[in-house]
Amino acid sequence: MVRTRNVGINPQRQIQRNRTLAKRISNQLVRSYLRKCPITEGKNLLLKLTRDWIIPEDPIVIFETKYPFRLKANLANPEHQYLYFYGTHDERYVVTKLLKIIKPGDICWDIGANIGFYTCLLASQVKDRGAVLAFEPAVRTCDYLQENVSLNEFTNVTVVNKGLGENREQRQLYYSEAALAEGTASLKYPNGRTASERVTLDTIDNLIGKLPMPDFIKIDVEGSQLEVLRGGERFLKTHAPLLMAELKDVGETNRDDFCEIEKYITDLGYSLYEIEKYALKRCTHISDSKKRNFFLANEDSPAFQRIATLCSINC
Predict the structure, then answer these.
(1) Tens of pLDDT along the chain (315 residues)?
(2) Rounded distance, CA 248 to CA 88, Å?
(3) CA separation (Å) from 299 to 143, 204, 245, 270?
(4) How far apart are CA 81 and CA 182, in angstroms?
(5) Domains of the chain in sequence order
(6) At a CB cut-off of 8 Å and minimum separation 6, what does 178 contact?
């Protein structure tokens, strides 16, 4: 008589499988709710309560966004976590306005591209007739940027491993850890950041004629915005492209810096516009605004009409 051996599933292994499955399902449900539910109240609390349970064990992930592109990110970085869970940037009103302003065929420069959320968003908007030039000085962050461009097979994006500033030079860039690809890396504010690298800076004016001339420039450079504008003064005065810049951090260490950059923007012939939920609103003083991102436009530019159509009555 042949005896059969009763081979059952290891209970511990089955428990682990069930746990993994439960985490995966919970992850999908929470992320779907955060991305699709129009009611925003309570979303932050939901994520706070579930984050430790549903976050993947491997921090390096590739995920779909709410837009026609995917991203590779490091979930050890809270900024990347937001993108992963919500499928979009925390600057959601900025995103909705960009989707209305940027047109197929536009040439866009993304100065301070980080891992490429806005680069990919712009690339998907300008289509094959347009182009995006993405500038990112940090080597590891630029690697993420290039990977995300390749991941989405964008053929209309050129990645440039440089920063832009007032002069062509080498500068020290400060951050906490290179692998985190931090969007808060700064040329100006060490603020306890223990790591840094030597990076190359160029200027807008020096690159005009060497690279496609931009219709739109996005500037997110953690306090060095005025330097970028000064490095492009000639081009900005003569061609007046649309700009979008994070300006609230300009006055982090000295509020007088707000006045300096406001005067410089005015001298260039530009006006400031706050980004609200449904419209844009003319802004005189950055320090009086609760917003951190602004559109800048010259009213004599043909492109100004794109801003005007989004302005509220306060414009």
Answers:
(1) 555 555 566 888 888 888 889 999 999 999 999 999 999 999 999 999 999 999 999 999 999 999 999 999 999 999 999 999 999 999 989 999 999 999 999 999 999 999 999 999 999 999 999 999 999 999 999 999 999 999 999 999 999 999 999 999 999 999 999 999 999 899 987 777 889 999 999 999 999 999 999 999 999 999 899 999 999 999 999 999 999 999 987 756 667 788 999 999 999 999 999 999 999 999 989 988 999 999 999 999 999 999 999 996 555
(2) 21
(3) 38, 21, 17, 7
(4) 12
(5) 14-86 (no CATH), 92-308 (3.40.50.150)
(6) 138, 139, 140, 141, 195, 197
Residue owning tokens 């592109």: 69
Tokens 């223990």, located at residue: 194
